[in-house]
Amino acid sequence: MTDKIKQLIIDAQNGDSYSFHQLVALHDEKIMVLAYQLMKNKQDAEDLYQEAFVKAYKNIRFFRFESSFYTCLYRITVNTELNMKRKMSHMHTQE
Question: Rounded to whole angstroms, how far apart are CA atoms 11 and 38?
Answer without folding.
Answer: 31
